[in-house]
Amino acid sequence: MREQIIAKAYAQSIIDLAKDENVDVAAEMTKFTEVINENNDLENVFFLDVFTQEEKVNVATDVIAKLKLSNIFKKFVMFLVQEQRLSIFPLIFKEVIMIDDHNKGFLRGTIEGAGAEVPAQFKDQMKSYLDAKLGRNCDLDYKQNDKITAGFRVTVEDLQLDASLDNQLDKLKNSIINA
Length: 179
Description:
Layout: H1 2-20, H2 25-38, H3 40-47, H4 53-67, H5 71-82, H6 89-104, E1 106-113, H7 120-134, E2 137-144, E3 151-156, E4 159-164, H8 165-177
Parallel strand pairs: 1-2
Antiparallel strand pairs: 1-3, 3-4
Helix pairs in contact: 1-6, 2-3, 2-6, 4-5
């Protein structure tokens, strides 16, 4: 939990700094993350403690130069290396994307269900409902969840709509026990 709070603070800071410099830090972090995710060696260098700070700085400098990323982003990554906080970069990245989405006026959410896919009509209805309720454009992804017997659970940030059979049975059980 503590790391998430730190990541959120770093994310807000880099967004504010990048805004002052007119840099799309979300796009730059996405490029950087994609390169790391595609290369296990880079992932090892950045996230394992067997490499020195100097080695991490050298590799990060080369990657950032090849990707032609901004100086503000380079300084941010170097700061994370220096403070030995590069391990929370994925959390920072997630927070930056969420803040960027908010600034652009839309939210990301997840529909979970038992089936392999969600019916298109349900997804469209849920999107329309959430767009109206939250006043923002919602982008919903579907994930199959083996712990859901039937129905759906929709989560958009801290809003959760749980219309799963399991949730209904839990409510019934609690009402009987507490009656």
